[in-house]
Design goal:
globular; alpha+beta; 29% helix; WD40_PAC1
Length: 543
């Protein structure tokens, strides 16, 4: 048998040592298969009460985790080598300066010139070596600004409208095609109240400005006013009450580096810090046991729908009858809203009219006619007796009730398809959205042309404006939600994938500026409403 010489042995050891610090950590498919086979053979030779299928599943899961951490380790080594290379170049440039032969002024000029050259070299080298990393950082930054916080699941059909209560306790309301309206705890996602008084699709929900009363519009040609009483559940304590720290999980795991079932366990059990090692280990082994026993959660695809009873909405208190019913329409009531003060309400219908009612007596005060086709939405001004109605006739109309003796109307023309919604915002501005894939900002003093136009790639549904920050939330038919400012500048697009975001048409958006956890809500025909945390200062800073 041949014997290696000392020099050959030392050379081979040095070569192996260099390999351990290089990219040789990444294994090929063949080596992975050999390793897996070797591990299985080792396990088969050991005494174990686990079935062979369970043991193989465990090996596969641990292999996935090991490969993910190997990739992270490789990236770390590459970055370290880049840093060492740049440090060597920096040291080399410093050695070229001979301080003994240069005066103070010459040294300063030469150092400045050398620093400028080195800075340019660093920029070029860094840009060339990290373009892929920078690209991934952009996605991560966008996700860090717009975070999905809570999903509200319990409806059996699509959700048409979402609204937030204006009084304490602050709750979330949803109106669904399953003939019900649900009230939710924003913090816990638990259903608090279920309204079942309608016999048709519930198309909109709005909360009274000062009382615990809700107004819902329905396909049964009526609008109902009903009272609710809720007691908010106590939210579970968290290790860190700071919202930004609670959302650390999303920015760290946004690149899906860990298996999806593990990520969902982290969210479910509110582990937001990667430094919480005991909790991470506990949840890791918990989700492995679920994987082994076949209890893993269902992965939703674009063709799947969540179970309507997922959050147990049938267990919450039920309101079966309204305080009063508004019944003057001859067609579907598509929307309703409270006038300022809450003593009157306005409804919009497919019978091409909008009606103004006295809430206390349920009497019809005015019937607003003029639209040529079905109405799609109505909205009231927060401080003045103004109403805006939208229609399929490509127009929206402004109705002025500030003077009791004169009820003036102004017609806004500018869209080429159905106007899906028009809402008031700060000052004398109105924002309208349309199926023609545009959103327009109007000045009430100049009806001839919009002051800003936003062009999108999909039909726009019921929009909402963050009045304090002048940000428009646009829900689209193509499942996207985009944020724009009032001048038409795009600010962000909410994250969406098979695991995050809406999986069907997004029907409506609603801001809740003062809530510390969720300040934007959206709903869609995937039977769920979603609460988002939008970091508005960071969003506006990136603008």
């Amino acid at each position: 048998m041949p014997i290696e010489s000392g020099s050959c042995a030392s050379a081979r050891q040095a070569k192996q040592k260099r390999k351990s610090h290089s990219l040789s950590i990444r294994r090929t498919n063949s080596s992975e298969q050999e390793r897996a086979g070797l591990q299985r053979d080792m396990l088969e030779g050991q005494d174990s009460k686990l079935p062979s299928a369970v043991r193989n599943t465990l090996l596969e899961l641990f292999g996935q985790i090991e490969r993910e951490f190997e990739n992270l380790y490789i990236e770390n080594l590459e970055l370290r080598r880049e840093i060492d290379t740049l440090n060597e170049r920096l040291a080399g440039e410093g050695q070229t300066i001979d301080g003994a032969e240069l005066s103070k002024g010459q040294l300063k000029a030469k150092a400045s010139h050398s620093t400028s050259q080195l800075s340019q070299k660093l920029k070029t080298t860094y840009k060339a070596s990290t373009s892929k990393i920078v690209s991934s950082f952009k996605t991560t930054t966008s996700r860090a600004i717009c975070q999905l916080v809570k999903e509200y699941v319990g409806h059996r059909d699509g959700i048409w409208d979402v609204s937030v209560a204006k009084t304490q306790p602050v709750v979330l309301g949803t109106a669904s095609a399953d003939h019900t309206a649900l009230l939710w705890s924003i913090e816990t996602g638990k259903c608090l109240v279920k309204y079942v008084g309608h016999v048709g699709s519930v198309n909109s929900i709005k909360f009274h400005p000062t009382e615990q009363v809700a107004l819902t519009a329905s396909g049964d040609q009526t609008a109902h006013i009903w009272r609710y009483i809720v007691q908010l559940p106590t939210p579970q304590p968290t290790a860190d009450s700071n919202v930004s720290n609670q959302l650390l999980y999303f920015s760290f795991f946004s690149e899906n580096r860990l298996p999806s079932y593990f990520q969902r366990h982290l969210v479910q059990h509110r582990v937001y810090s990667c430094k919480d090692v005991p909790s991470l280990l506990y949840l890791f082994f918990s989700c492995i046991l679920q994987q082994v026993s076949g209890e893993d959660e269902v992965e939703f695809s674009d063709k799947d729908e969540p179970d309507g009873d997922g959050d147990g909405s049938s267990d919450c208190p039920t309101v079966r009858a309204p305080l009063t019913s508004l019944k003057s329409h001859q067609g579907v009531v598509i929307a309703a809203d409270w006038l300022v003060g809450g003593k009157q309400a306005v409804t919009a219908s497919w019978d091409r009219t909008a009606n103004l009612y006295d809430v206390e007596t349920s009497e019809l005060v005015h019937s607003l006619t003029g639209h040529d086709q079905e109405l799609t939405h109505c909205c009231t001004h927060p401080t003045q007796r103004l109403v805006v109605t939208s229609s399929r006739d490509t127009t929206f109309r402004l109705w002025d009730f500030r003077d009791p003796s004169i009820h003036s109307v102004n017609v806004f023309q500018g869209h080429t398809d159905t106007v899906t919604s028009a809402v008031f915002t700060v000052g004398d501005n109105v924002v309208s959205g349309s199926d023609d894939r545009t959103v327009k900002v109007w000045d009430l003093k100049n009806m001839r042309s919009p002051i800003a136009t936003i062009r999108t790639d999909s039909a726009v549904n019921r929009i909402n404006v963050c009045v304090g920050q002048r940000i428009i939330a646009l829900p689209h038919d193509n499942r996207q939600v985009r944020l724009f400012d009032m001048s038409g500048v795009r600010l962000a697009r909410l994250p969406r994938s098979n695991r995050q975001g809406h999986r069907r048409m997004v029907c409506c958006s609603a801001w809740c500026e003062d809530h510390p956890i969720c300040n934007l809500f959206t709903c869609g025909f995937d039977r769920q409403a979603i609460g988002w945390n939008i970091n508005i200062p960071a969003l506006l800073q990136e603008k």
